[in-house]
Amino acid sequence: MASLSSCFAIATVCILSVLIKARATVPIFVFGDSLADNGNNNNLNVPLLDKSNFAHNGIDFPGRIATGRFSNGFNGVDYIARFLGFPIGPPPYSSITKPNQMLRGVNFASAGSGIQDYTGPGTINMTTQIKNFQKVAQVLRQMLGQSQAEHTIATSIFIIVTANNDMFEYYFATGAANAASNDQFINNLADRFIQHLMSLYNSGARNFYIAGTGHLGCVPFLTSKNPAGTCIDTLNQLSMKYNTIASARVSQLSSRLQGMRYSYSNIYRMTSDIIESPTLFGIADVQNACCGDGKFNGEVQCTANVTYCHNRNDHFYWDWFHPTQAIYRITSQMAFFGSLIYSTPISIQQLVMGI
Ligand SMILES: *[C@@H]1O[C@H](CO)[C@@H](O)[C@H](O)[C@H]1NC(C)=O
Ligand SMILES: *[C@@H]1O[C@H](CO)[C@@H](O)[C@H](O)[C@H]1NC(C)=O
């Protein structure tokens, strides 16, 4: 925290940062998959690959704790929370024991889940994540009273990071080889996503940050299986198509729903820029997982049994499916403060300043 004397010395900067902090500590409610989960799966009866609460995960997290984040350190939600003035993202729903732990927001995300409730069997599916939010909203009404609770929810940010596992499962099941089936799959996915947004809107949510999907075909798990060692183009195409259709549907929805505001981030564009000019972003390796084993370190999960790299800050991938905290930080900065080539129609910062 800036001391009072440095406030006087650089008065305008100080006033600005105080204003941003005062406006900006809005609660955050988080929904989605392993890119956002921070511990909800830890005690769930799901396959090992949907868990991460063991070494070497968390090796760069404060205290070297493996919290259940799929990262060597923080994840993207943590960085967005930090830009908003919080030390870290909101607590996982599974860890909450007292109502006042809900006041800065709650994370409902579950690794392995998707937009479709049948994606990631055994994980906390999206319908249940939203039901869990509705339970929290009920507790907030009891704690704060009806109108204050409604105001709190309407001035919170709803972060949604999903669709990745739906596309992975579809690709594994079908190879995504049929253009007509792909179109139908993507349209159904976008429709279902809109239904979830409407459920949240009907529960009082007004401000949404939606993370788009990135280069799913480039994760080390898939490139390690590709004899050419290159990205799976059909899956990248699917991801791009999803973003085009989903962002258009969200735009239409926002013009129908009074008071709905949103930022949809073009993660695909961000990761293209990083992959094309990694050194501009301080990244040296965009191919190998830091933690894992086999080709590209992408053949097995990051567990205590495998090795990990020491130059984690210059790797794109932490493990076979997930980025390092360096990439979570860079993409979160782009989504929060970055140019509008990365966000439609506004950045997260603009979303927050308008609340
Ligand atoms: C979603 O989760 C709920 C609660 O676990 C479960 O009852 C429901 O069957 C799930 N839906 C699907 C399609 O798996
Ligand atoms: C590590 O390897 C041992 C012996 O093969 C195995 O029993 C254990 O389950 C492995 N642990 C993890 C986290 O994969």
UniProtKB/TrEMBL annotation:
Entries under InterPro entries matching the protein: GDSL, GDSL_Est/Lipase, SGNH_hydro_sf, SGNH_plant_lipase-like
Listed GO biological process terms: lipid catabolic process
Record Gene3D superfamilies: SGNH hydrolase
Sorted UniProt keywords: Hydrolase, Lipid degradation, Lipid metabolism, Signal
Tree of life domain: Eukaryota
Signal sequence, start to end: 1-24
GO molecular function: hydrolase activity, acting on ester bonds
Entry's family note: Belongs to the 'GDSL' lipolytic enzyme family.
Protein name (Swiss-Prot/TrEMBL): Uncharacterized protein
Organism annotation: Rhynchospora tenuis
Taxonomic placement: Eukaryota, Viridiplantae, Streptophyta, Embryophyta, Tracheophyta
